[in-house]
Design goal:
504 residues, 4 domains, elongated, Dihydrolipoamide Transferase, OB fold (Dihydrolipoamide Acetyltransferase, E2P), 27 strands, alpha+beta, single chain, 7-stranded mixed β-sheet, tricarboxylic acid cycle
Amino acid sequence: MTTEVRVPTLGESVTEATVATWFKKPGDPVAADEMLCELETDKVTVEVPSPAAGTMGEIVAQEGTTVGVDALLATISAGEAKAAPAKADKAEKPAKSDSADTGSSVDVMVPTLGESVTEATVSTWFKKVGDQVAADEMLCELETDKVSVEVPAPAAGTLTEILAAEGTTVQAGGKLAILSSGSGASAPAAAPKAEEAAAPAAASGKDVEDAPAAKKAMAEAGLSRDQVQGSGRDGRVMKEDVARAAAAATQAPAAAAAPAQAPRAPAPAEDVAREERVKMTRLRQTIARRLKDSQNTAAMLTTYNEVDMTEVMALRNQYKDEFYKKHGVRLGFMSFFTKACVHALKEVPEVNAEIDGTDIVYKNFVHMGVAAGTPTGLVVPVIRDVDQMGFAAIEKAIAEKGARARDGKLSMAEMQGGTFTISNGGVYGSLMSSPILNPPQSGILGMHKIQDRPMAINGQVVIRPMMYLALSYDHRIVDGKGAVTFLVRVKEALEDPRRLLMDL
């Protein structure tokens, strides 16, 4: 049976890539998920794993070839090469040859982490060396800058070696551990041998063939092999390693010559003893970077309005029990705001558009991002085609995405592709704030606390439940008139929900 190796999804707005490096040649044995080649796009470098175990067949796209998404890269012949990975492992790691007769070894690899995500940090190991594991049992958890990823056991056996300890940064497709599908009795003895054999190779770097793309990058950056710490298999230097080393080399002199930030003043000893220093999680670092990038890139402006929530609250109170009995989900305010935003986006489509270079991309659909607070930070799951959904479907989707977000179970795909975002700071008591755009989107609506305030209605002062609304928008694409119109349409739809039914 022949398995095709095709170009994976490259990311939003990326349609082609260049084949940079082939790590295998025709006739080589390959294991499932082993890295076959490296593709370069104008944004990121993408590694292509093997979809199955077998023997490398024909390479259709040679190095330097430009290929589109889903284009055929190569073929793999499965079947006769089942024992090939074990033989290759013997050749590379002679120290394990004594234990090879007791059972075959299975590599535990870093799974695909998602578009534009090339590395992760090992946060927790659920098993230790010597433990018996069942197929698909959770071995460890990885933390990326966006989501947490659980790594299941690819087969039943014994965990013989952990190659990436907790706190280690690993690359997509890298090796995490080794399982023995046999008795595993000699595993403890084999593990130290493997470490001893790997240590000289990693230290010297002479017996490890670095990626060709990495060699080229080192030459262009003027870096020697000793200046780059390899993160690939057996210390192999990858292109991303060179980029990190080059960035570190340029930042160090700049920091020494002219520090961008004043050094932290030394605190009194009694204060230091009461301080706690905690390293930022990858998610928190990414949140900080993306928020600052948004401010630096977009011409961000915020316009405000207020909405009388009397009619929405009355409608909700009238039908909430019947709604729950029929649909099995509670009727909240988010479905009203989502429908109101969809209604307004139809009239002001530029708020639902994005800038791509010198083009404006108008979206004839609404993928609504709903910001959700979690114990590890803010995430924005996306509800797709929300413009085609009713109140019940919206409430179910929001509840399901929110629960998955709090449990850290969201996938990369569930947080990509949004065209507009709603952020509800009111649940935390916020009275007014200016939300920050979620690039490349051009608009985000901020909801706030509902508060009783005296209002002048028909010449009389009455108490009404009022909420401040804030629309932050990219002034490069959305004019002030469009932003104000959008917010007024949201206000009108909420103050008279019947307008949503009449499409007014």
